[in-house]
Write a structure and sequence with these properties.
alpha+beta, Ubiquitin-like (UB roll), four-stranded mixed beta sheet, 2 helices, 4 strands, 12% helix, globular
Length: 135
């Protein structure tokens, strides 16, 4: 007796990497993908589905973890079972099988760019003496 193939639905949850909490109060959601899809394609589909709340974030700014336990161990020491994110070219097939076992998309927060103040520049016209045309 063979088991049923994994669902074409890939469940996911958006998380904020800085707080470790669901992103802006989101809940688990899903996208439908062909079985030969890779993580980068999943990431793009999930980003597109949530584009209205992800302003200023591109899909390439997400790190994908296989589950919540892996996400929680993202900052652990290697000896303590540190988990690495999934590679962009990894197959999605069989991952995120249900809303209780979703993939986690972690937003990589970027610090606001530091503005370096410039020295004030005089906007006055240069006062170069004009040559006299005595002649």
């Amino acid at each position: 007796m063979s088991s049923a193939p994994p669902s074409p639905l890939v469940w996911f949850q958006l998380y904020d990497s800085a707080t470790g909490e669901p992103y802006k109060g989101t809940y688990s959601d899903y996208v439908s993908l062909p079985p030969d899809s890779v993580i980068a394609q999943f990431r793009d589909a999930a980003h597109l589905k949530n584009s209205s709340i992800l302003t200023g974030i591109t899909s390439s700014q997400f790190t994908i973890y296989k589950n919540k336990a892996a996400f929680d161990k993202r900052n652990a020491a290697v000896d303590d079972g540190k988990e690495e994110p999934l590679e962009e070219d990894s197959l999605v097939y069989g991952l995120g099988p249900s809303k209780k076992k979703p993939l986690l998309l972690s937003s990589r927060r970027q610090e606001a760019p530091v503005e370096v103040p410039l020295n004030p520049v005089s906007l006055e016209k240069s006062r170069i003496p004009k040559e006299s045309s005595n002649g």
